[in-house]
Amino acid sequence: MVRATDDGRTGTTSLRVGVVDSGLCNLGSVMHAVRCLGAEPVRLEGPAGIAACDKLLLPGVGTFGQGMENLGRRGFVGPLEEAVLGRGTAILGICLGMQLFASLGTEKGTFPGLGWIPGRVERLRTDLRLPHMGWNEVRFRAETPLRQEAIDGADFYFVHSYAFGCDDPGHMAATTVYGAAFASVVRRDNIHGVQFHPEKSHRAGLHLLHRFLYADRDSVDVGSGPVVEQVLTNALSDDRKVHGPRRLPGP
């Protein structure tokens, strides 16, 4: 249960959020964002501890093949499948982490993915400069626990050259345009993915992470009411606040 304290911050009785360490990114910003929102981040350097987590985050940067290789070498694939597909634990993939949910990736070869959301990860089809790096608008097109009025149409921070092409358009929860439209949010049941970096996207990113953490729990207000706004203001103004990149000019 999430509850508000007198200063508007949230407390939680037991929300443990496992952050999968695939060895492909710095987890500090992600873990700090989770902590700012009142949950307990647990760094998972191996599969031990997955079963004790209420929610899972799979961040990642780099290439698809390396991401899958690292997950396999560290023993994550089977235990993650047991948690996500077997027990229904909610997971949020971030950037490369989202792409690994696909059936296969085509970056520097063809590699099988986790296959949790049928589709292919292919190079962005655009005449604009790659990588797509900077702030861009995210428009939701389907209902998802991550969706709320406060962030629909907001800008989020992207760094990528490949995009997730869903076999089933119903799994494409939000789109972004960079020369052409691509899936910036995907969802299948308890499996959620975002192509952007919410931990680097300031207020909009914290809103989205807050939705992922608490939308299915007994809470004071997981939408955009005053309690959440105060929590986000506190998180952003804290001396140890989450720092995102400054707004960058377009390509």
TrEMBL record:
Membrane-spanning intervals of the chain: none
UniProt xrefs under Pfam families: GATase
Gene Ontology terms describing biological process: L-histidine biosynthetic process
Pathway the protein acts in: Amino-acid biosynthesis; L-histidine biosynthesis; L-histidine from 5-phospho-alpha-D-ribose 1-diphosphate: step 5/9
Recorded GO CC terms: cytoplasm
EC number, UniProt record: 4.3.2.10, 3.5.1.2
MF terms in GO: glutaminase activity; imidazoleglycerol-phosphate synthase activity; lyase activity
Keywords: Amino-acid biosynthesis, Cytoplasm, Glutamine amidotransferase, Histidine biosynthesis, Hydrolase, Lyase, Plasmid
Subcellular location: Cytoplasm
Gene3D superfamilies xref list: 3.40.50.880
UniProt-annotated catalytic positions: 95 (nucleophile), 197, 199
Catalytic reaction annotation: L-glutamine + H2O = L-glutamate + NH4(+); 5-[(5-phospho-1-deoxy-D-ribulos-1-ylimino)methylamino]-1-(5-phospho-beta-D-ribosyl)imidazole-4-carboxamide + L-glutamine = D-erythro-1-(imidazol-4-yl)glycerol 3-phosphate + 5-amino-1-(5-phospho-beta-D-ribosyl)imidazole-4-carboxamide + L-glutamate + H(+)
Domain Glutamine amidotransferase: 56-213
Quaternary structure annotation from Swiss-Prot or TrEMBL: Heterodimer of HisH and HisF.
Biological role: IGPS catalyzes the conversion of PRFAR and glutamine to IGP, AICAR and glutamate. The HisH subunit catalyzes the hydrolysis of glutamine to glutamate and ammonia as part of the synthesis of IGP and AICAR. The resulting ammonia molecule is channeled to the active site of HisF.
UniProt protein name: Imidazole glycerol phosphate synthase subunit HisH
Gene name as annotated: hisH
